[in-house]
Amino acid sequence: MLEMRDIRKAYATPQGPLSVLEGVDLSLAAGASLALMGESGSGKSTLLHLAAGLDTPDSGEISLDGQRLSAASEPARAGLRRTRLGLVFQQFHLVPSLSVADNLTLQARLAGRETPDWSGELLTRLGLAEMADRYPEQLSGGQQQRLAIGRALAGRPALLLADEPTGNLDEASAETVLTLLLELVRDSGCALLMVTHSTRVASRLERRLTLSHGRLLAEEAR
Amino acid sequence: MITGRRSPRLVSRMAPHLVPHLAMARTALITLLSHYRRHPGQLAMLLVGLWVASALWSGVQAINASARDSYARAEALLSPRLERLERRDGAPLGYADFTTLRRAGLPVSPLIEGTIELNDGQRLNVLGIEPLSLPAGGIGEDRRTGNGGEDGANPLGLLQPPGQTRLAPETLATLNFSPGERPITAGGERLPPLVIDAQLPPGTLLVDIARAAELLKRGPRIDTLLLAPGTPAALPAAYRRTPAAQGLSPGQLTESFHLNLTAMGLLALVVGLLIVHAALGLALEQRLGLLRTLRALGVPGRTLVALLAVELVLLGLAGTLPGILAGLWLANILLPDVAASLEALFSASVGASLSLPWHFWAGSLAITLGGLATAGLGMLWRTARLDILALGHALSSHADSRRRQRRQAGLATLAWVFALGLWAWPAPSGTPSLIAGFAMVALALAGSALALPVLLGAALEGLKRCLGGNSPRTALIRWALADLQLQLPRLQLAMMALLLALATNLGVTGMVGGFRLTFLDWLDQRLVADLYLRPPPAAYDSWRDWLETRPEIATLLERRETDTRLIGAEGERPVALQGISADPALTASWPLLATLNADRAAAWQSLREGAALINEQLAIATGLAPGDMLTLASPSGPFTAQVAGIYPDYGNPRGEVTLTVERLIQRFAAKPGSMGLVLTPGLAAADEAALRQRLTRPLPASGEALAPSLVDQRSVHRQARQVFERTFAVTRALTGLTLGVAALALFTGLLAQARERRARLAPLWALGLGRTTLLGVTLAQLGGLALATALLALPLGVALNWALVAEINVAAFGWRLPLHVFPAAWVQALGLAVLVALLAAALPAWRLWRAPPRQLLEEFSAS
Questions:
Q1: Which of A38, B276, B473, B823 is most enclosed, with most CB atoms within 10 A?
Q2: Are residue B585 and residue B668 in the same domain, yes or no?
Q3: Class of A2-216 in CATH
Q4: Residues B686, B753: one domain?
Q5: Rounded-to-integer distance, Cα B747 and Cα B211, Å
Q6: Domain residues of chain A, as ranges?
Q7: Considering B244, B265, B295, which residue would you say is the last residue of a domain?
Q8: In this predicted model, which residue has the larger pLDDT, B151 or B195?
Q9: What is the largest CA-CA distance in chain A?
Q10: pLDDT surpassing 50 at residue B396
């Protein structure tokens, strides 16, 4: 489903080019889950951004379901993000001017894939049904992250990319959100690539990879 | 049909591709617009900005368009292609001349013009024509065929009893009559039935010449003989031809007046668009996160830019259309004053009701939407360049802000350099160009507005550095200054609007005030006689002879006028010619701007000996100076005289040459004019009253049954003051409204960021500052910023005042005014600026003061 071959990426800095990824190879099968770990600055978020088509590699190939993401135009990458991917951010990035219900269905509507039954089920399973008419600012941090997960899954994506989805939450909320996320991912049948610092969180996923100084270390078995 | 065959195939080919895109665009647009549901203040700010900008601009344009329509009709009434005939001996024309010329085979037609008063006091121009002999191609064409009038089919309508009084629809509306009615004149005569003629200019009645002669009590005299264009050159020796529309048309004369109005409208448009720009910037900044999220969720960047452009169009239509309607309402209120000014200044008749061509609507919409597009271009550009990976990052770092300030300072310097260049660069014609004058003012205003945030930022930084000590008060002041620096990017556009409005207000107030002082002084110097008498022309000599014998009169000051042409190396130009009595009673106070060797007495003596004086307008337009020779066309051939001096002639749009009245009679066969009567000092009131009474009756010795017209100096003064005040009523109204718009800009700017302000103040509250203190700090911040802006507006206002009197006025009207400054107006402006800022800050401050502690606590947590 997701294939990344020999990915290289460097950023220009006043001190010269800073290499972030140095020949990364990664593959993720449909319905599988993978935790991407590593220290701060190891290139995890960059790799996630490349997988989401938010950025392009300097060299190497990325393909999603056989479609070459690395060679696609910006509108084509946007189209793939809209229809095939779900994104969950550490900072939630909800739309403050839309209600909970409208936030949840936003991406599905953008992709023209809204299914009211599934949206309703998501609202209920996320524990947000009673708050459908509220606005994000009226929710707690945990509720906001659950809403962000719902938004990412409402369009039934093939791949969910999550960047530290529990990083902003307290332990109890983080546990609840993670459990819910994994349940929903499993039920919807999509693949999951999650960036995390937490070994505890990573241990809940099928595979675990560690990035260090722009290179992937050997995969750790669960 | 072709479309019908193609469309199913087209839809089937496009639909799968387009439908999801349309759904995406619709959802994204709704999401973008949802921002305004949560921030109605910003939406109001945008709409109000557009509303006021389009209202003031379209109001001014509606006035201009209506006036131009009136000029076009006035010009169409007397086609420039028609020629007029006059007698070489300067004697008035009569029906005998008409008969002689028609018998000689010349296609001439008589015309008389005059003014009548209706029994309700309204005064109207009357034009008497002879429909059967009117030449084709001029005023006659439509009226001969009957196409001009409403009932039009009968070409003899004007002639057949009871005749017709043709008039423009707006004249009919002003008179409050219906077609077919017969108004009564002040003399008790009934006009022929009213008939609408849309081609006539406002304020003019067209009747048959015989009826006009009765109404105007003209007897056998006619004013003009019109000659069809293309008539062979040979004329009887006693006659010569002159162009019918000698001199400038009303459209040309009033061009500068309308350009001034347009400039004021443009300024209001710019100030309004500054509000829009500020609101758009704020809306973009607050939606950056949303835009990045939408990009992350798969909306392409180009789609977002297109959707924001759609949003701009929707907002533009929502704000502009009501704005144009409000502009029409404003124009309806201002038009009577404008019409009165144009009538008094240029004798140009303008209808008191609006008459708008289709392109007014299209133009108003296009200008406002164009302005909105310009204001929104920055927003679209920033959206197109949005860094998708900077999710959640603040938009403007200190480095960004400094970079922006440097760019603004560079642009401000450039604008000022160009403005100074335009001032220093001599115009090719030698006289300043109006467009260059306005461009100079616009560049100086733009440069100052751009420099304002830079200067305010530097002043705040300087104050912060100067602040010593560690007392709680110092700490609070230091925080307030730093906070103001943070607020500055958000408030800078509102402050720019305030600066422009204050400077314009100061500049225009200074110009109008200075003009009033100069004008009234000049009136006192020129109006030395106590009474002004205009006898009927035929009785003029008898009246003069009689008045010269009267002991009540110390001096008789004759004045005659005529038109002629100044002959120069570059061709001929029409000039007004006046003859005056060069009596010391008049010449002692008559102001002169320049004379040969700065010797006033010698200049007047030269005039008595045959030299000429010229007005400032003519001197600037031709470059003539004291000592130069000028040549005028006269009935007996070219007349050459030395220029003895230049005099100011405020309010006169034309070039004028002054000779002695004797010279005017001798060389130019000038018709009788008026007489100024200087009363004997110490004349008893009863004797003066008796004289006045006598002067309102006909003089039996003259054999003329008509009484002279008499006005006293006080009423001339009063009328001149009224004209003056009405002329500047519109200017004052527009500058006042512009200041109002600037206040609105500040108010909406503060309201739009009130929530964020509270979030910034909440930590201070949490640290132990009372809400009253915070309120005081907020008001002091805004008041101080407005005061600093006003202080910078003072020199700009003086510079604008100078540009108006020394550059724009010279280019527009041909005369220069001395620069007057009014310190009281400065103090008023400073107070006004602080008041505007405090009023604008009042509502957000009141909300802060009323905010419950729980809310502040929540905002503190959020901050």
A1: B276
A2: yes
A3: alpha beta
A4: no
A5: 62
A6: 2-216
A7: B244
A8: B195
A9: 54
A10: no
Same domain, B557 and B593: yes
B90 shares its domain with B58: no
Q: How confident is the model at residue B91 (pLDDT cuts 50, 70, 90)?
A: low
Specify the number of domains making up chain B: 4
- B389 and A49 within 8 Å at the Cβ level: the answer is yes
> What's the pLDDT tens digit per position in A66-92?
888 888 888 888 888 888 899 888 878
- Using an 8 Å Cβ cutoff, are B634 and B564 in contact? yes
- Chain A residue with Cα closest to B24: A110
pLDDT of residue B859: 58
Q: What is the rounded average pLDDT of the residues B325-347? A: 78
Q: Is B272 within the bounds of a domain?
A: yes
Q: Report CB contact under 8 Å: A78, B23.
A: no
Residues from A in contact with B at Cβ < 8 Å: 49, 52, 54-55, 74-75, 78-83, 85, 87, 89, 91, 93-98, 102, 106-107, 109-112, 135, 137, 151
Q: What is the pLDDT, as a whole number, of residue B81?
A: 62
User: Are B730 and B751 within one domain?
Assistant: yes
- One domain, residues B88 and B133: yes
Nearest by CB to residue B297, choosing from A106, A135, A137, is A106
Touching A: B residues 253-312, CB under 8 Å: 289-290, 292-303
Per the prediction, chain B carries an average pLDDT of 79
**What are the pLDDT digits (tens) for B337-359?**
777 777 766 666 666 667 777 77
Q: Which of A91, A138, A160, A84 is nearest to B290 (CA)?
A: A91
Asked if B37's CB is within 8 angstroms of A97's CB, the reply is yes
Round to whole Å and give the CA distance between B322 and B325: 5
Burial (0-12, 13-18, 19+ Cβ within 10 Å), B285: middle
Q: Is B39 on the interface with A (CB under 8 A)?
A: yes
Is it true that the peptide bond before B162 is cis, omega within 30 degrees of 0?
Answer: yes
Mean pLDDT, rounded, for A29-51: 89
Domain boundary among B216, B244, B272: B244
Range of the domain at B445: 397-520+722-863
Taking CB atoms and an 8 Å limit, are B298 and A97 in contact across chains? no
pLDDT band, very low/low/confident/very high, at B59 (cuts 50, 70, 90): confident
Reported ipTM exceeds the 0.85 cut: no
| CB within 8 Å: A106 and B301 | no
User: Does residue B319 lie in a domain region?
Assistant: yes
If asked whether residues B554 and B512 sit together in one domain, one would say: no
- Percent residues over pLDDT 90 in chain B: 14
Q: Is B295 in Cβ contact with A78 (below 8 Å)?
A: yes
Q: Hey, what are B62's tokens?
A: 């509606």
B297 closest CB neighbour out of A55, A91, A107: A107
Q: Is residue B525 part of a domain?
A: no
B88 touches chain A (CB under 8 A): no
Among A78, A94, A95, the residue with its CB nearest the CB of B298 is A78
Report the pLDDT averaged over residues B525-552.
86
Closest partner residue to A78 (CB to CB) among B27, B34, B299 is B299
CA distance B185 to B619: 44
Token digits of residue B363 = 């133009």
Residue B818 lies in a domain: yes
Q: How far apart are CA B236 and CA B98, in angstroms?
A: 12
Contact A78 B391 (CB under 8 A): no
Contact A97 B38 (CB under 8 A): yes
The number of angstroms, rounded, from the C-alpha of B777 to the middle of its chain's C-alpha atoms is: 42
**Three-state DSSP class for residue B225:** strand
Instruction: Say whether both B336 and B415 belong to one domain.
Output: no
Between the alpha carbon of residue B394 and those of residues A106, B285, B385, B391, the distances in Å are: 24, 9, 15, 9
Characterise B610 by phi-psi region: left (phi > 0), alpha (psi -120 to 50), beta (else): left
Residue B752: the pLDDT is 63
Of A75, A79, A93, which is closest to B293 when you measure between CB atoms? A93
